[in-house]
Amino acid sequence: MIKVGVYGASGRVGKLLLEDLKSTPDMSLSCVYVRGTLDFSIDPSVLVTSDLKSFLSASDIIIDFSLPDACEALLEQATKTPKPLVIGTTGLNTHQLNLLKDASQIMPILYATNMSLGVALLNKLVYQASAALEGFDIEIVEMHHKHKKDAPSGTALTLSESAANGRGLNIEDVRVSGRDGNIGERSKDEISVMALRGGDIVGRHTVGFYNDGEFIELNHTATSRSTFSKGAIRAGKWLSDKEAGLYSISDCLEL
Ligand SMILES: NC(=O)C1=CN([C@@H]2O[C@H](COP(=O)(O)OP(=O)(O)OC[C@H]3O[C@@H](n4cnc5c(N)ncnc54)[C@H](O)[C@@H]3O)[C@@H](O)[C@H]2O)C=CC1
Ligand SMILES: O=C(O)C1=N[C@H](C(=O)O)C[C@H](O)C1
After folding, report:
1. Which of 106, 163, 156 is nearest to 129 (CA)?
2. 117-222: which CATH topology?
3. What's the CATH fold of domain 2-111+225-253?
4. How far lies 47's CA from each of 61, 141, 252, in Å?
5. Angle at Cα 78 formed by Cα 158 and Cα 36, nearest 5°?
6. pLDDT (tens place) for every residue of the chain, 255 residues total
7. Residue 149 is a catalytic residue
8. I want to staple 33 with a disulfide (CB 3.0 to 4.6 A). Which of 47, 55, 98, 209 is the partner?
9. Quick check: 85 and 57 in contact, CB under 8 A?
């Protein structure tokens, strides 16, 4: 039985992880990290703690869906108490991403801005389309619920990287994340990533390739957040016996 610790357990994805783990063979919830007091009921066999060291020690693997600063604190403690980590938190800054990369030298870490099978495949398709559709303008639009804190979404940023890589470009040189005012014509290489927020949209990503006379749009829509929790649980099972290193969801899905 793989003992799972959930970080961000009271959140939208965290709550689903607790539910989905109940019906997952060979895995059980061992521990949740809470900042204050627990605001939901939980099986008494599960350790509830606000001490990161105890949290890590009580688990064989950790699944994290929290916020960037919380993820940073987890990574810092994990370097002293290493455990396989599945990280789903998005909006990480450069320092936090570097911390994650460094930590992966001493423990296995699977970092995915989107845990769904569909988006993992979409990334491959975007890379191929970007390479094949020379001269097409690439525009990415993402839509999420009104509570989402980071923008653009982690998924949209990853898709923009796939698109840039398909053309041998560095995304940092070509990404545009807003247009307003007299900004002039679109430049040839730019890849725009635009964020829309509203209601309860779980997650929708469209990558468009636009040319004079034709365009293609690749679209993925998540209709249930359980797609992410189930994907993270599958990733955790896969990661549990891996060597230290940084893994992607494509590694886990063998895409
Ligand atoms: N990779 C993926 O497939 C997906 C990633 N996400 C990302 O996962 C993260 C969480 O998303 P939601 O569950 O919607 O957010 P949420 O706001 O509902 O939950 C955040 C959780 O983090 C906890 N938290 C906040 N600050 C903390 C701190 N300082 N220390 C410890 N815990 C802290 C909160 O108590 C809460 O349990 C976001 O970054 C989101 O973008 C969301 C869905 C899918
Ligand atoms: O915050 C969310 O909800 C989601 N966040 C992830 C992201 O930033 O890409 C994944 C998914 O789209 C839902």
Report:
1. 163
2. Dihydrodipicolinate Reductase; domain 2 (3.30.360)
3. Rossmann fold (3.40.50)
4. 14, 41, 28
5. 95
6. 999 999 999 999 999 999 999 999 999 999 999 998 888 899 999 999 999 999 999 999 999 999 999 999 999 999 999 999 999 999 999 999 999 999 999 999 999 999 999 999 999 999 999 999 999 999 999 999 999 999 999 999 999 999 999 999 999 999 999 999 999 999 999 999 999 999 999 999 999 999 999 999 999 999 999 999 999 999 999 999 999 999 999 999 988
7. no
8. 55
9. no
> Phi/psi zone of residue 14: left (φ > 0), alpha (ψ -120 to 50 degrees), beta?
alpha
CATH 3.40.50.720 positions along the chain are 2-111+225-253
Distance CA 167, CA 25 (A): 42
| Adjacent-strand bridge partners of 208 | 139, 217
235 annotated among ligand-binding-site residues: no
Closest C-alpha to ligand 1, atom 23: 8
3-state SS, residue 23: coil
Residue nearest to atom 13 of ligand 2 (CA): 203
List the residue whose alpha carbon is closest to atom 1 of ligand 2. 148
Active-site residue identified among 3, 15, 148, 242: 148
Interface predicted TM-score of the whole assembly (ipTM), two decimals: 0.99
- Ligand 2 lining (C-beta closer than 6 Å): 90, 113-114, 144, 148, 153-155, 203
pTM over 0.95: yes
Q: Give Cα 84 distance to the centre of its chain.
A: 16
For the chain, the 3-state helix, strand and coil shares in percent, each to the nearest 5, are: 35, 25, 40
